[in-house]
Records
---
Amino acid sequence: MNANKVAINVCNAYRNEHLTIILLLGIVYSKTTFDVVKFGAVGDGQTDDSEAFVKAWKALCGAAAAGDDVPTLTIPGRKTFLLQPSEFEGPCKSKSVHVQVSGNLMAPKTPDAWKVCPPYSWLSFRNVDNLILDGSGKIDGQGSAWWSK
């Protein structure tokens, strides 16, 4: 799969009641993992964890995997991570990267709380080949706040 750009568009998604993204489902085993908490993410739903996520992504994307290993960015369960609009840029050194969402990702609750909105996407993956995104967590773009816009 070639995923040159996958974006979770919230600014323009106010007309859609639900936003669903399915990239690839499967079981991925990785010896090389990057836990966002180890990069400074708090996961209390109040603290802006964007910088920690970008740092963890850069480490993931810069990792060269050996053999069939797929470097994995882990977002632990039982936590809610508040994220401002963020861009996760490739190309990555590994032929494939895995983002395992076990916790919850949450956009700021109101449009006024967004630090930036152009180019009208909340989470964006650019120039990333073979992106695997899976897990039991939730991705909450706070869409209802945009519906009245």
---
Amino acid sequence: MQAQENAATPMMEQPVVDIEATTEAEARDALLPALLPNPGGEVIVDATDTAKSDEMRGLLAAIRRLESIVEEETVALTTGKKVDFDDFSARKSRSMLEFVRLMRARMHLGAEIEITEEIQRLRERLERNRSVLEMHYDAVREVATIIVKAVKDAESDGTYTGRATQGGK
């Protein structure tokens, strides 16, 4: 514990080529300073970069899990496979909760290009899923209306229907 408290945060230490010290020909060919590998052995990585990288990987994994569940449901609906709506609903809810919690905790990652692109792709898949679900529910509603009408017609003997009487009676 004490060793951890006294340990300094490792930083990326790599020599940078000094452009001013190069010859004129080399200066024309050199576009940017080049980072050279540390010839002493180990690569030292900044701890904050590692933490940010871990946060990004975790958030990206959560987005991709949610995207996978949404896409699985969409494919099942469009191919006519049997769909367990309770299962998909529970899985999407858990995954969405995980995503929302991670985003709240890591709002600073919202500006990262990779995160933004993944969220945009998730948004597109969610919109497609919503559209397919809406179409499915409209079809179910229409079939249910037809069934209800058929059952009412089959049970009715015509006594209470609004049929016009013959001869004014």
---
Amino acid sequence: MTMREEVTSAQLRSAAGMFPSGVTVVTTRANGVDYGMTISAFASLSLEPAMVMVSIESTSHTLPHLAPGKPIAVSVLSDVQLEHAVQFARHVDDRFAGVPIRREGPADVPVLEQAAAYFVGTVADWAQGGDHTIVTILVEDCGVDVTREPLHYHQGRLS
């Protein structure tokens, strides 16, 4: 029996890229400052209680603002928000510049206007998953705009 070589990052990225996913922007508000980032690793987790989850690179500068108990929103981007997906993925001073938002929940977390759907809640817990942190979210409010089509991420491309 021969040992199989370890899977490389490039192999895993290529194989996982064959699975199309939606694109979200995860946001929070801490000490009067808005924070946000583009995330494609999002999933529904539980119906009872209502929970979703995101996976965030553990070195993210936004992650410390998403500690358990903190407010959080997830905007599921629509197909007219490709520029927002790119903007929130960049390392810029103000990722919210020029992006229309509304405030939701008691903590006034930002939710992107024109999103196909949104979830607002509280960070429930963290779990380590290799070089990422899995963030579980207790959903307190959510909604959908049935007139919008979701933005997709597939093979490294947004469409």
